[in-house]
Amino acid sequence: MRAVCLLSGGMDSSTLAYLAKDMGYEILALHMCYGQRTEDRERECAKKIAGSLNAIEFMEIGMDFLKQIGGSSLTDGTIPIEDHSMDRSSLPATYVPFRNATMLSIATSFAESRGADAVFIGVQSSDYAGYPDCRPEFIEAFQRVIDTGTADGTAITLETPFVDMDKTDILRRGIELGVPYEDTWSCYRSNSPACGTCDSCYYRLEAFEALGMRDPIRYEV
Q1: Residues forming beta bridges with residue 6, ordered by sequence position
Q2: How would you classify the pairing of strands 57-62 and 157-159?
Q3: Residue 120's beta-bridge partner residues?
Q4: Does residue 163 contact residue 156 with C-beta atoms inside 8 Å?
Q5: How far apart are CA 220 and CA 191, in angstroms?
Q6: Could you read off the pLDDT tens digit of each residue along the chain, which spans 221 residues?
Q7: Where do the domains of the chain lie, and which CATH numbers do they carry?
Q8: What is the 3-state secondary structure of the chain?
Q9: At what angle do helices 11-22 and 39-52 cross, to 10 degrees?
Q10: N or C end of the chain: which has fewer CB within 10 A?
């Protein structure tokens, strides 16, 4: 069995790739560069994780058009990265408009060309409120797109094993699988050290704290 794993180099996607390997899949690692602030560190981590999994292929795709389109603090340096806030009710500035649909389209093309059986994406429950393209309804709709838009006889399953899990659940599973979290990166702001205060850092640190563990990466605060 072969699976395309969307591998950002972050905590969720790295755990996802390890889980896919544990499920018996050979890994086709797909990394996207779209002008995000921590692009260099993410690429470095994604390559390390792919190497540790003996991925049969590592493909890097440039999506700089998302930076050109803008509309997100991840790709537009004039929009500040917000600190985590429990009171936020609006769409986070880190939302990249329709990014997951673009990534899944590319992943499906990669999977179909390689005869892969599945595409894995690490959407998870705590993303729903902030990112509309992480909702279960979106994933279900995109599965129909895959079924309709690929060649007759093609069967590619969109796998989202973390869809009902939060960050702590994912970390707990990753520890069982032996994920090298020192080789992953989650910070939205900085290539090094991690800021410790953006949404991504906050939820990552919260997960390690919930399990009584120390995060192995370096933080500014």
Answers
A1: 30
A2: unpaired
A3: 5, 159
A4: no
A5: 11
A6: 999 999 999 999 999 999 999 999 999 999 999 999 999 999 999 999 999 999 999 999 999 999 999 999 999 999 999 999 887 768 889 999 999 999 999 999 999 999 999 999 999 876 555 688 999 999 999 999 999 999 999 999 999 999 989 999 999 999 999 999 999 999 999 999 999 999 999 999 999 999 999 999 999 97
A7: 2-210 (3.40.50.620)
A8: CEEEEECCCCHHHHHHHHHHHHCCCEEEEEEEECCCCCHHHHHHHHHHHHHHCCCCEEEEEECCHHHHHCCCCCCCCCCCCCECCCCCCCCCCCCCCCHHHHHHHHHHHHHHHHCCCEEECCCCHHHCCCCHHHCHHHHHHHHHHHHHHCCCCCCCEEECCCCCCCHHHHHHHHHHHCCCHHHCCCCCCCCCCECCCEHHHHHHHHHHHHCCCCCCCCECC
A9: 20
A10: C
How is residue 177 written in tokens? 């699988």
